[in-house]
Write a sequence for this structure.
């Protein structure tokens, strides 16, 4: 599950909306090399882990949820389309109720390397190390609720979809403490084996738009990881912050560490 750089995504959407505009041209490594910013290196945090066991049962309460009735909860599937059957219930008072532990046959399947590692046209730093197979297939569990059911919230007007048309599903994520420095997102990940990911990657990619001519979007992504996934379910924390933005070049840092299990008791709608 690669995280597509936001600038490249915006560029692609802009091009798609302009029928007569030529498609964007991806910048070559030679063009990107002088744009790369060799920012100072910092020490990685200590390796952390938050194993939840071979079986894990979801629970907790969704923050600020008060509705007129209970609604169904679902798990995001591996393939595009709707989930197969409800995974539990979100009560009118916001309680998450499930009848069975998480099923590793449900959820979003991806390679661990695709989840954590960033790729680009030019990668001057490739120092992520893996104690086991980086191609190991992991399962990411994401709770969903229908957008149609979000309207049942008493204060539903406070949450509006940011895309058009209105999406079918909304994510429920553990409500981790946010900071002004950037975003923090929790992930529930099942790994069939123990693996430690340690180190840093730095990659840069960019595109040039045909309209207006010569307009460029360039993003440098720096991934830092210091985490051990235990065999079974794990709680991971992904942090993202903008380090700098000069002209059309943005530098984003993404970090991967463990999320303490006690932060899985409160959830939020995203």
């Amino acid at each position: 599950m690669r995280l597509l750089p936001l600038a490249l995504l915006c560029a692609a959407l802009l091009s798609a909306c302009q029928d007569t505009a030529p498609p964007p041209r991806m910048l070559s490594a030679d063009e990107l090399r002088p744009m790369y910013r060799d920012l100072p290196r910092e020490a990685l945090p200590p390796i952390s882990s938050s194993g939840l066991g071979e079986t894990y049962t979801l629970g907790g309460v969704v923050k600020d949820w008060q509705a007129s009735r209970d609604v169904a909860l679902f798990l995001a599937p591996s393939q595009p389309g709707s989930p197969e059957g409800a995974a539990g219930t979100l009560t009118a008072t916001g309680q998450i109720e499930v009848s069975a532990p998480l099923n590793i046959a449900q959820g979003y399947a991806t390679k661990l390397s695709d989840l954590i590692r960033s790729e680009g046209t030019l990668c001057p730093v490739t120092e992520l190390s893996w104690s086991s197979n980086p191609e190991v297939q992991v399962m990411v569990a994401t709770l969903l609720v229908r957008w149609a059911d979000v309207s049942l919230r008493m204060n539903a007007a406070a949450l509006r979809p940011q895309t058009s048309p209105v999406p079918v599903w909304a994510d429920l994520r553990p409500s981790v403490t946010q900071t002004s420095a950037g975003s923090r997102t929790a992930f529930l990940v099942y790994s069939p084996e123990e693996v430690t990911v340690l180190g840093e990657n730095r990659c840069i990619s960019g595109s040039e738009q045909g309209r207006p001519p010569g307009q460029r979007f360039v993003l440098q992504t720096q991934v830092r990881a210091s985490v051990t996934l235990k065999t079974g379910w794990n709680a991971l924390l992904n942090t993202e912050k903008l380090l700098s933005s000069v002209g059309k070049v943005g530098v984003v840092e993404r970090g991967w560490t463990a999320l303490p299990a006690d932060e899985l008791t409160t959830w939020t709608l995203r």
In short: The chain has four helices and 19 strands. Residues 77 and 83 are 5 Å apart (CA to CA).
